[in-house]
């Protein structure tokens, strides 16, 4: 991973013991439906072999078809929800270091997500509504490639005033030291993200964001740039970094230069210099999470990177977002 960092490295952060709700995540809780498909299937729905997109009307039939495949698997998913789960797994004890907010439907898929969050010892507080069903994400697998099509449904119904603003929920936000929200949530509730980001900035806590997918920088640049001044750590992979650079007119495709220019974008809390973590390779999201788990323990930057590599190496060998009983990372 390319990094650019200067004076304020995490090693200067105060060491504290882990306690409940120290890591806060908010995003789109989705049930992943994954199946091996062929090129014809991708072509039929106009999908690239490796991509992440939001479902449109033309993809409705895709969801009906993918569940009929012979080897279909269901996993609790959603980028941020997966991230906080793996972070909790890396940390092991105490339970519920990780908090997660998002919106689901009152249905079977929603119950599965609740059960899975519980099994992962994540303190999930879902806003439940019955206008839309729980969101799903079709993972269309060909060889080593995954084309992800997200049908947000309920996930898109998250309401700041109906959930985040409630005292009992906001108290959990205040308990956190590290915040992580994937860029994907910018399509749902930018006002919720801003409220959390401003809280982090005003209280000198760490707010992390992920560029998530090229379409975020392309079509949700305005909400993304509204949050950027509050972002202490920005994650992304090389494709997302290149798209982001293009959208901002950086006129370079050198990843180190993009990282440096991104680091120097305007920043609200000047006590913390922005850290930019651009990963190269398939295991980018998982590396992010390992990094987060070390961050919550207030380890040095080197440790954060090492933890990121460890998580990536273990989880990448398994299908979907599954992990062994315990990490053997020391």
UniProtKB/TrEMBL annotation:
<dbReference type="GO" id="GO:0006166">
    <property type="term" value="P:purine ribonucleoside salvage"/>
</dbReference>
<feature type="domain" description="Carbohydrate kinase PfkB">
    <location>
        <begin position="41"/>
        <end position="286"/>
    </location>
</feature>
<comment type="similarity">
    <text>Belongs to the carbohydrate kinase PfkB family.</text>
</comment>
<dbReference type="GO" id="GO:0006144">
    <property type="term" value="P:purine nucleobase metabolic process"/>
</dbReference>
<dbReference type="GO" id="GO:0005634">
    <property type="term" value="C:nucleus"/>
</dbReference>
<keyword id="KW-0418">Kinase</keyword>
<dbReference type="GO" id="GO:0044209">
    <property type="term" value="P:AMP salvage"/>
</dbReference>
<dbReference type="GO" id="GO:0004001">
    <property type="term" value="F:adenosine kinase activity"/>
</dbReference>
<protein>
    <recommendedName>
        <fullName>Adenosine kinase</fullName>
        <ecNumber>2.7.1.20</ecNumber>
    </recommendedName>
</protein>
<comment type="pathway">
    <text>Purine metabolism; AMP biosynthesis via salvage pathway; AMP from adenosine: step 1/1.</text>
</comment>
<comment type="function">
    <text>ATP dependent phosphorylation of adenosine and other related nucleoside analogs to monophosphate derivatives.</text>
</comment>
<keyword id="KW-0660">Purine salvage</keyword>
<dbReference type="Pfam" id="PF00294">
    <property type="entry name" value="PfkB"/>
</dbReference>
<keyword id="KW-0460">Magnesium</keyword>
<keyword id="KW-0547">Nucleotide-binding</keyword>
<dbReference type="GO" id="GO:0005829">
    <property type="term" value="C:cytosol"/>
</dbReference>
<keyword id="KW-0067">ATP-binding</keyword>
<keyword id="KW-0539">Nucleus</keyword>
<dbReference type="GO" id="GO:0005524">
    <property type="term" value="F:ATP binding"/>
</dbReference>
<comment type="subunit">
    <text>Monomer.</text>
</comment>
<dbReference type="InterPro" id="IPR001805">
    <property type="entry name" value="Adenokinase"/>
</dbReference>
<dbReference type="InterPro" id="IPR011611">
    <property type="entry name" value="PfkB_dom"/>
</dbReference>
<dbReference type="InterPro" id="IPR029056">
    <property type="entry name" value="Ribokinase-like"/>
</dbReference>
<keyword id="KW-0808">Transferase</keyword>
